[in-house]
TrEMBL record, chain A:
<protein>
    <submittedName>
        <fullName>ABC transporter ATP-binding protein</fullName>
    </submittedName>
</protein>
<keyword id="KW-0029">Amino-acid transport</keyword>
<dbReference type="InterPro" id="IPR027417">
    <property type="entry name" value="P-loop_NTPase"/>
</dbReference>
<keyword id="KW-0067">ATP-binding</keyword>
<dbReference type="InterPro" id="IPR003439">
    <property type="entry name" value="ABC_transporter-like_ATP-bd"/>
</dbReference>
<comment type="similarity">
    <text>Belongs to the ABC transporter superfamily.</text>
</comment>
<dbReference type="InterPro" id="IPR017871">
    <property type="entry name" value="ABC_transporter-like_CS"/>
</dbReference>
<dbReference type="InterPro" id="IPR003593">
    <property type="entry name" value="AAA+_ATPase"/>
</dbReference>
<dbReference type="Pfam" id="PF00005">
    <property type="entry name" value="ABC_tran"/>
</dbReference>
From TrEMBL, chain B:
<feature type="transmembrane region" description="Helical">
    <location>
        <begin position="191"/>
        <end position="215"/>
    </location>
</feature>
<protein>
    <submittedName>
        <fullName>Branched-chain amino acid ABC transporter permease</fullName>
    </submittedName>
</protein>
<feature type="transmembrane region" description="Helical">
    <location>
        <begin position="98"/>
        <end position="118"/>
    </location>
</feature>
<keyword id="KW-0472">Membrane</keyword>
<keyword id="KW-0029">Amino-acid transport</keyword>
<feature type="transmembrane region" description="Helical">
    <location>
        <begin position="65"/>
        <end position="86"/>
    </location>
</feature>
<comment type="similarity">
    <text>Belongs to the binding-protein-dependent transport system permease family. LivHM subfamily.</text>
</comment>
<keyword id="KW-1133">Transmembrane helix</keyword>
<keyword id="KW-0812">Transmembrane</keyword>
Amino acid sequence: MLDVKSIRTGYGGVEVLRGIDLSVGQGEIVAVLGANGVGKTTLNKALSGLLALTSGSITFDGKPLGGSPIAAVEAGLIHVPEGRKIFPNMSIQENLELGSYRRGRASRARNMERVYETFPKLRQRMTQMAGTLSGGEQQMLAIGRGMMAEPKLLILDEPSLGLSPLLVEEMFELIKRLNADGLPIMLVEQNVVQSLEIAHRAYIIENGLVTMSGSAADIAADPDLKRAYLGL
Amino acid sequence: MYSPTILIEAVINGLLTGAIYALIALGLTLVYGVLHIINFAHGAILASAMFAVWGLKTLFGIDPYLSILVLATVFFCLGYGVQRLIIGPAAKGEDGNILLITLGISIFIENALLAGFGSDTRSINSDFAFSIVEAGPFLISSPRLVGFAGSLIVTALLWFIMSRTDAGKAIRAVAREKLGASLMGIDVGHVYALTFGLGCAALAVAAGLLMPTFYVNPRIGGAFVNIAFTIVVLGGMGSIPGAMIGGLLIGLVESLSGLLLGESLGQIGIFIIFILVLLLKPTGLFGAKA
């Protein structure tokens, strides 16, 4: 589905990604894990076309991915960004409508019904301004807005950030449910333990490089990882 | 004290003038709301639109009201092009640069108009300018009534675009959340240009509504923009209903303080309001907190 080959990029001379390889297959949840500042957000920016590559290639759905957010959305690679980035001055309904601004416009009504079924809370508040929602509801809205574009692959950037433990649990349940319908998901997280519980495979990024990859179960059992991330 | 008839007539005249002010403020507030900069070229673009109305009438005999349709389209395209081809590329992503570029554009336009038309004041002669509608004891100038109606129509149209169309929703989305918008596949450069184009189109309409009763010279824009800026601050930066209500209020204040203090002091009221708003409610009537 998604094939990333030795991509390098950064900001004005500072290289952040130093040759990253990774892939996401049909129907998979792939966790991309790492501490703050290792390049996860930069990787997402590169994938969604916000940041140009200095070298390497991204293939999506069998075709090279054009280097702009518009091309990424058109191809069906939908990025739900860190910090939600919903439109606070607009109603929930309007936020969802804009999810299908570039892609999935023809089936907007049907998709919106599906999103409201997944998130009944959003339906109750569809005329409310998105900025007045709680953090968890905003995250649901951000994911719902992503679903409106009929994603072929959904990138979730730190969906659990800033949520209460109970909501985090709910969020990971939701991600599993979305994936159960066949949607491939790339989950970019700092929350190592819970991400590994729901992911099929995982990559650990350190310092702009993939330092470990494999099945989620193997990685969860790795003594180095336990020491580095879990303090065990 | 003044007779009620005079007072009411002043109120009516104030509201009629205010609607045109509102129309000029509309473009300013729209561009501010989305691009987060004050468009310094606003006045110069208004002046060139007024010259265009004057030119179409003088050279081809086209009625100002008819020319609105053509000029609104032309100025929309001009505005779109200027943002897309000049301001956008030259700004290199820095809002501060946009400010300077619009200032540069305003100097360029004003001087081009000076070079082309000289500093003379010109106006359109038409019988309609002096026609009056009698409403009971009140005499209302017909072109001002048309101006009022035109402003309301444009405001309603703009409100419809912003709240009901995908393009308008994209504009509002970009105004507050540029990154989120571009991740939805919204072309931010296109939205900026669209916004700038709409602002310029509103100015073209204002020019067509103004010219039957007003005059034009290359520096005419400045006077209007000062007032428009006050309206934008009063109504709340970036708010469309704020621009309309603020415009009507400012027109009213100008008219009444003109009546009470004399014509030449009429604008004092406007600037007192400006200072009071900044002191008491800096976000304006409808403005969102930053």
